[in-house]
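Appendix B: complex inputs.
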Amino acid sequence: MIKFECVSKRYPNEPVDAVDRLSLHIRAGEICMLVGPSGCGKTTTMKMVNKLIEPTSGTIHIDGRDSRAIDTIELRLNIGYIIQEIGLFPHMTVAENIATVPVELGWTKARISARIDELLELVDLDPRIYRQKKPRELSGGQKQRVGVARALAADPRIMLMDEPFGALDPITRAKMQDEFLKIQEKIRKTIVFVTHDIEEAMKMGDRIAVLKAGRMVQLGTPMEILAHPADPFVSELIGGRQALKMMNLIFCDRLMHEVVAVDRGQSVEGARRLIAESGAGRLVLSSGGVHERFYVDAQTLAQTHDFNAAIRPIARALRLRASAQDALSEMLRTGERFLFVEDDSHEVKGVVDLEDLFRQVSEHEHADQA
Amino acid sequence: MSMQTRPEGRGHLGSLGKIAGFLAIGIFMTVDVVRWPQDSMVARLVSYRKILELLGQHLYIVGISSALAILTAVPAGILLTRPRLKSWAARVVSLVNIGQTVPSLAIIALSVGLLGIGARTAIIAMWIYSLLPILHNTLVGIQDVDPAIIEAANGMGMKPAHVLMKVEVPLALAMILAGIRTAVTINIGSAILAAFVGGGGLGNLIIAGNNISRMQVLVLGAALPVLMALSADALFEMIEQRTRI
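Resulting structure:
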């Protein structure tokens, strides 16, 4: 937990505050994105957490303690710090880089070595291959993984990340973002993440603090900020097409409604009754559990006496983690008004209707204006 | 995927080969003069023992003066990059720079006035003279370390002394070594001048060869320091390759 209370920072010989009376409470276990254009004070704000920069006024509490009362070295050893790939020590091997903080903390060799292997596995690098490599032998993405591993070495509760994926190509960046979110699900750190990229903020952040000229102009979840930008600056930062962007934040696992399984031997009346009773919709899956990829077309079922005539194969399905935007795109591409949703083992879990998309997005758009 | 495969062995072998070559040339020239002296004057002046003695003196003067220079200029250079002394760096460098513009002969002559004659005088003069390249390179080497890397080190909680010794100095090492290489190479040449103040060394051969007008001795006295300087240069080349990041 990090709590800024009316924190200001003015650099010497500057006419205005780089950070102006910032009050911000970052909760334990959340990713709080600091986003804004260059010079908005986001990096200054972050660096005040580990005292690389001293605030001019105001207090910062780290896990309930005033940061001024905590020894600087002790404070920093307990905060993971990740900057762009240049932050790796080029003269040290991957293992030595990761060992930096544990060595400072005086861990035993065996414990450090075990921790290095554990961390390399966490970030998906084979310890046998990568331990002894130098940073110059690594690709941009691999360097960043090592950076993450190094920051996690002593299992800090708080992590500071300063544009960590900024130097990567778009494909690698997206991949690193996804992987980092997966890691965060496991480790649940309190993270302050600085970026100038609003898309990255939307994707990574539990909450986003938008900064402009040293002041926080808005704080909220990505959805809140998209639905209700606080002022024209935030709207401009988001850059229009909010509804489409909101669709990136809604996922099929939340959108879909359930499917009901019936077997092939079902009578037409029975199937009709099931549809009516479940109330879920016009579609039911046929026989042999949900693995069998056929569905029953309700419209046909209403007009026929032959149950088999209403059975259609399921040609394509969305994954649970597919976004509403993916769903819409797929509907536009195929001309279907509904799509099935499957899990990783291709078991059909539900169905998403075009109407669901409309409903979800407009719900958020008109959500509590108060 | 950077595929920077460096021919690891070849670099070292090349430097070692050079050193062996220079050594062979030096031995060949020495043997030539001792076995087939021009005349009896040369024969009386030159012997294996005599040459080894002068060589030893030369190495001694170079070794002590260079070691002194390294032991003073490297710490001084590091100190001048610390926040408290940073503002002094420019002034100190220009002061040492001025010292460097004075010809080495003049420095040695001036030292005689203060310290009298002997090897000690030569050593002190050469020590002062070789401070600059080492000091300058240490300063620049440490100043040139990417500030983002230093900030990362500080931000992770490394103690300031560890940031210096584990990050800044290792990253500046190539630059510092280059300064030492320059200083040592220059010193091997300047050590000839020690002969003029009674400090011994291979300069004695040049003076003697000049006095008796014997080309053979003169050339040997000039060639041996050159070969020594080239060998030292090759040796440093090898060290630099080995410490490269």
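Chain B is about 80% helix and 0% strand.
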